C-alpha cells in the first residue's frame, strides 16, 4: 500500500475509535449531588449537546425535581427518558422543564434523549 492509502486507513480507524468512545465509553461529564429546596432534591441540568451535569446523586425516599434547561433546538435533545421511573417528557427548546418523581430504593439509573444518544446517570443513595 502507498503512504496515502495508509493515511486513509489510519484516519478511518481514528474516526471509528472516536465515535465508539464518544457514544459508548466517554462517560458523563460532571457530577453533582442534589440540593434540598423545600424538602425536594433539586438539580438544574443544562441540555446542550449532552447533559451537564451528567451524573447526579440523590437520596432515596425524598422527592426529586430535575429541571432540564434545554439550550438548543437539536431534534436529538427534544425528549428526556428515564425508563426506571416511567418518565418520558418533551423538552421545548430554550425553556426549563421540571421533571418530578420520588426514588424509593438505592441504585443507578440512566437517563437519555429519545434516541438514546445523549446519556446521563442518576445515582440513588440510601436515605438513612
- Uncertain runs with pLDDT below 50, 5 residues or more? 24-28
Quickly count the helices.
1
Shape: elongated
Q: What is the fold named in CATH at topology level? A: Immunoglobulin-like
Over all CA atoms, what is the radius of gyration? 18 Å
Strand-residue fraction?
Answer: 35-45%
Count of strand segments: 11
**Helix fraction by DSSP (H/I, runs of at least 4):** 10-25%
Q: In total, how many domains does the architecture comprise?
A: 1
Mean pLDDT: 86
**How do the strands of the widest beta sheet line up side by side?**
1-5-11-10-7-8
Order of helices and strands: HEEEEEEEEEEE
Description:
By secondary structure, the protein is α/β, with parallel strands linked by helices. It has one domain: Cupredoxins -  blue copper proteins (Immunoglobulin-like), CATH 2.60.40. Helix content is 18%, strand content 45%. It contains one helix and eleven strands. Strands 1-5-11-10-7-8 form a six-stranded mixed sheet, with no helix packed on it. Strands 2, 3, 4, 6 and 9 form a five-stranded mixed sheet that branches.
Structure in a nutshell:
The chain is built from 1 helix and 11 strands; from the N terminus they run αβββββββββββ. It is of the alpha/beta class and 128 residues long. It is elongated, with a radius of gyration of 18 Å.
Amino acid at each position: 500500500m502507498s503512504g496515502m492509502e495508509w493515511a486513509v486507513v489510519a484516519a478511518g480507524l481514528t474516526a471509528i475509535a472516536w465515535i465508539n468512545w464518544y457514544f459508548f465509553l466517554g462517560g458523563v461529564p460532571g457530577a453533582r449531588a442534589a440540593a434540598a429546596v423545600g424538602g425536594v432534591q433539586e438539580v438544574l441540568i443544562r441540555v446542550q449537546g449532552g447533559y451537564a451535569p451528567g451524573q447526579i446523586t440523590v437520596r432515596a425516599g425524598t422527592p426529586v425535581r430535575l429541571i432540564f434547561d434545554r439550550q438548543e433546538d437539536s431534534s436529538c435533545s427534544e425528549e428526556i427518558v428515564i425508563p426506571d421511573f416511567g418518565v418520558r417528557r418533551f423538552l421545548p427548546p430554550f425553556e426549563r422543564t421540571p421533571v418530578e418523581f420520588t426514588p424509593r430504593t438505592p441504585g443507578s439509573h440512566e437517563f437519555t434523549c429519545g434516541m438514546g444518544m445523549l446519556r446521563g446517570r442518576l445515582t440513588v443513595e440510601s436515605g438513612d
